[in-house]
Amino acid sequence: MKQIIRTSLFFIPIILFSAFSKMISVNPSVLDASGYVLEDDKKVEGAMVQLYQDNLIVDKLSTKKNGRFRFMLFSNSEYMIEISKPDCVKERVYISTKNEGDLADKYYFEFAVDLMKLKDFEGVDVSNLDFPTAVINYDADADEYVHDKLYSKSVRADLRRMKEEKDALKK
């Protein structure tokens, strides 16, 4: 009986250590998400770029003269990048890093955000602009992050409808 207890006391810590070290040695995949902010096709200095992870602000920065921003996003989370500037409509980009990719991979995705002036939407229902203007997901077949084309198509349709609404108000 004492031999069984000694053996158990010897092997249990080894098994626990082995299991624990496997848990902590898993490296999450990383998405290097970068982009730049434009207004009227010019790079914007001073735009506020906030990164939300699971609905909590985890990082923020103000763009420099080059209008660029960059965040490192880890796997198995949902992120929202919100870009704002006075007198412009807030833009949001949703990024899901929930994927089945190789956990040792590092991915890169770059995109531009073209800010729209608030005055261009005066008198128009802009409630759809409270939602993200772009959705980015992992595509397992391509093994990369891509824009959700169907979602982007619906956003373009909403923007077209708002422009038509604004044009109708001018008449």
From TrEMBL:
<protein>
    <recommendedName>
        <fullName>Carboxypeptidase regulatory-like domain-containing protein</fullName>
    </recommendedName>
</protein>
<dbReference type="InterPro" id="IPR013783">
    <property type="entry name" value="Ig-like_fold"/>
</dbReference>
